[in-house]
TrEMBL record:
Residues 48-94 form the AB hydrolase-1 domain. One of its GO terms (molecular function) is hydrolase activity. This is Alpha/beta fold hydrolase. Pfam families: Abhydrolase_1. It comes from the Bacteria. Keywords: Hydrolase. The lineage of its organism: Bacteria, Pseudomonadati, Thermodesulfobacteriota, Desulfobulbia, Desulfobulbales.
Length: 161
């Protein structure tokens, strides 16, 4: 079975948000579902979307980054790679797992992010991910300045995208 790519949008966004539309245009095979409700409701929806698929590449933005993280904590063997854009690891209900996640994870965050501040998110990420690559950009939470300039081809791996 090949690689399956998902984009998980943020709390107040959708598949029609800026990043969702960009991924739909640039990577038409990427699955970009809509999520609603609280974290547990969104995770149930993600579980249904993913089913028993393996070789998942999850790209999560803000609350979607939190979703990707929590999903990987429960299904690490199914996850090939995580790309977390300003992930909401500072969400009060989140705490790092007892056993760190070994899935290769790229975390990109803006140094001026007031929603998911690097000084709050990075210590949690370092306790969560064993194989973590961090990029701190000259940007804010939305990452609008750098998003399109990121090396998506390299980060996604494109094993079949």
């Amino acid at each position: 079975m090949g690689t399956t790519y998902y984009f998980l949008h943020g709390l107040e966004s959708s598949s029609k948000g800026t990043k969702g539309r960009w991924f739909a245009k640039q990577y038409p095979n990427m699955i970009i579902p809509d999520f609603e409700g609280d974290l547990s409701h969104r995770l149930l929806s993600l579980e249904k979307h993913c089913g028993d698929r393996k070789n998942l590449v999850l790209v999560g933005s803000s609350f979607g980054g939190l979703m990707a993280t929590v999903y990987a904590m429960a299904h690490e063997s199914r996850c090939l790679r995580l790309i977390l854009l300003a992930p909401a690891l500072n969400f009060p209900e989140f705490s790092p797992p007892e056993k760190m996640i070994s899935t290769p994870t790229r975390l990109i965050i803006g140094k001026d992010d007031a929603v998911t501040p690097p000084d709050k998110v990075l210590p949690l990420a370092q306790k969560t991910f064993q194989n973590l690559d961090v990029t701190i950009c000259n940007d804010d939470h939305m990452l609008h300045r750098v998003f399109c300039e990121l090396d998506w081809r390299n980060m996604l791996g494109e094993e079949g995208l």
